[in-house]
Amino acid sequence: MKSNIGINKNRLIKSIEEMAQIGATAKGGVNRQALTDLDKVSRDLFIKWCKNENLKITIDKMGNIFARRQGKNNNLPPILSGSHLDTQPTGGKYDGALGVLSALEVIRSLNDIKYITEAPLEIVVWTNEEGCRFPPAMTGSAVFSGQYNLNDALLIEDLDGKTLGEELSRIKYNGKTNCRPRKIGAFIETHIEQGPILEIADKSIGVVVGSQAQKWYEVNIVGMEAHAGPTPMNKRKDALVGASNIVLLVNSIGNKFQPGGCSTCGVLNIKSPSRNVIPGECFLTIDFRHPSDQRLKEMDKNLRLEIKKIANNYNLKISIKQILELKSKSFNKKVRKTIEKVSSNLELPHQEIISGAGHDAVNINDIAPTGMIFIPCVDGISHNETEKALKKDISAGAQVLLHSMIELADNTK
After folding, report:
1. pTM of the predicted model, to two decimals?
2. Residue 1 lies in a domain
């Protein structure tokens, strides 16, 4: 390991704070949803910083941004690192941006000492990782890895009926490069854990061994609108009552499939709400997760069976559409061992960990050797304006990323 090479912690923290001002919220978080004007500003700033480091910028047809630093042998496949810049509506400063800016700090640090790696290096910013505006999540990396059709992705609509493709064009990030798999030496994504495990264990680094399985659903409940006063209780077709039962069902399934099961209803909408009208139509979303593909399949079966019962009990029509499925994944052994070795050499306390959240790395794992570096976040809080990571952990994660990328780029065999 090149022990004389280190990242500039203060520069990295300053970049994170400056990026966090784009879409800053009153509570200290960030609202910078995909393909909004604020997302454009963050992308523009990132590209400005990359050009200052003499990186070559390319943008593909999904709006994914690649910033390339040439190596000694540019015929070798590049070592990639990065994440995303879009956030949740009430997101934090570190989810996504940490991975992008840690990768940028790696490049800056190498440029400071004029160190050229054997293989080229690239920073990547993936489009629409969060999926809160244009579901499903991780769309840019899904198209890039060949798991999602580009044309289908460009037609995804937000709640206002605007398509992903239209918004890409509007903010002028509809690139010309084909968005499809290509040869990659390795991909590493640095991220906050988004859970409490590392903090509880007092570890600086999580060596991510893989990710759990996921399913996302959209559910439409149709009953009949009627006056709240004259309509007897036993004659009602109340869509909100059906939706409420589904919310409770989803929560019970998560509790039933322990250890490991997680279940969430994150969106619930009433069509044409009025205080003296029985709701006739509702929409809700469901997020299921489990480390076991088989157990997730059982959760799915349980959900569908019980929803049929709810529909019958309340005389409702309920349709359920699965919009995302991710199998559990194991990350590349060589990349994992590299991260583990670097963490040991830097004398940073570390442990293996499973990712509870979905990340772009999960998609890229299908087409390239992939790994992830987790750092702790305070109280395990994420997707929240109070999200926080300590400076020492941010620095540690970037330092591990720096030496892991050097190791992978200089030892390509």
Report:
1. 0.84
2. no
